[in-house]
Amino acid sequence: MPVATPDQYAEMLDRAKAGGFAYPAINVSSSQTINAVLQGLTEAGSDGILQVTTGGADYFAGHTVKARATGAIAMAQYVRTVAKNYPITVAVHTDHCPKDALDSFLLPVLEASEEQVKAGGEPLFNSHMWDGSAVPLDENIEIAQTLLPRTHAIGSILEIEVGVVGGEEDGVKHEGSNEALYTTVGDVTKAVEALGLGEKGRYISALTFGNVHGVYKPGGVKLRPELLGEIQEGIAAKFDTGPKPLDLVFHGGSGSSAEEIATAVANGVIKMNIDTDTQYAFTRSIAGYMFSNYEGVLKVDGEVGNKKQYDPRAWGKIAETAMAARVVEAAQQLGSAGQSKG
C-alpha cells in the first residue's frame, strides 16, 4: 500500500486509541533497515511508522557530507516508492529535532513539504517531532506554537516532548534532575493552554515517566507508566473533556517489561519508538554470520574466499530478517499485530 495520506494517518491514530493498541515507530538509517521494517510489519499484519533522526538523516545523505535535510527527504521518497509493494499502511516521521537542529533538519524538510502541498501533492512526512526537552518549558511551548500552524496547514501532525527522556539518542543527550524525568500535570496544562486539544492543529505528546534512551536490562529503569493515566485524568478534569484527551508517545522503552508497556498503552500511548533493540537485532545477526562464515568472507592464508558469502546481499538478507523479527515482536507487544486494514 502507499504511504498513508494525512487523513489515513489521522484515522490510524484514532483507531489505535479506540482499539487500545499502539504502533511501533522504528528508527531507520538505510534502505536495508527500511526494508527490514516493511518486512516485519507485513509479517505481523501491522501498520506502523518509519522515522528518521538527525543522525539517521546525516547517514542517508552520505556520512562524508553534512546534508541531513537532503538525507531525510531521500528517506521519505524511498519509503514512498517501495512501500507500495507491501500490503500494509505506513507513515513517515522525523524524530527528535532539538533546537540547534531546527535550521538544518526540521525547518527545511517542512518547507519541502509545504512546496509539495502547494503544488497539489501530499506532505513528504506525516509527522514531525520538535524536541524541546532541553530548553525551558516556556520556550519549548513557544516554538511548538510556531510549528503547529505550519504542520496543520499541510496535513501533518506535530510531536512534542514535555519532560525529559534521559540518556542519549543519535548524539542528542538529555541530562537533568530525576524530577525532570517525570512530567507533571502542571507542565502539560501549560502546553494544552497554548496548543489546544486539536482545534489549533493535531499534535501528539511524548510525556516522560522515567524513560531513558539507550540500553538497559529489564528493571534497570524506574518507569511509572501509571503517571500517564494520572495526567490524562488531570487534563480531562481541567479542560472538561472525555477520558484520555491526549495522544501519547512512549520514548526510551528498551528494557521495559510487558506489563509496563501494556500499562502505558492502556493510558493512551498510540506510538512507541523503537531503535536500540532493532539496531542490535540487525547487527547481532551480521556478527553471527561473519563468525560462522569466517573463511568465506575473508581471504584467509592467501585464499580467494567465497563471493557468495561475502556478497553484501548474503548477509544483508539475514540482517533484515533478524531486524524484521524484532519488529514483529514489537507489534505483538503493542497490540498492533493483525490490526492492519491492508
What does this structure look like?
There is one protein chain. The strands form two sheets. Strands 1-2-3-4-5-8-9-10 form an eight-stranded parallel β-barrel, surrounded by ten helices. Strands 6-7 form a two-stranded antiparallel ribbon. It has a single domain (6-334), classed as Alpha-Beta Barrel (TIM Barrel). Strand 1 (23-27), helix 2 and strand 2 (48-52) form a beta-alpha-beta unit. 49% of the residues lie in helices and 14% in strands. The protein starts with 5 loop residues before the first helix and ends in an 8-residue tail after the last helix. It has 342 residues and is of the alpha/beta class. The model has no long low-confidence stretch (mean pLDDT 93). It is globular, with a radius of gyration of 20 Å. The chain contains 13 helices and ten strands. Helix 6 (137-153) crosses helix 7 (185-195) and helix 7 (185-195) crosses helix 8. It has helices at residues 6-19, 31-44, 54-61, 68-82, 102-118, 137-153, 185-195, 226-239, 258-266, 276-292, 294-297, 307-310, 312-334, and strands at residues 23-27, 48-52, 90-97, 127-130, 157-162, 167-169, 172-174, 203-207, 248-250, 269-274.
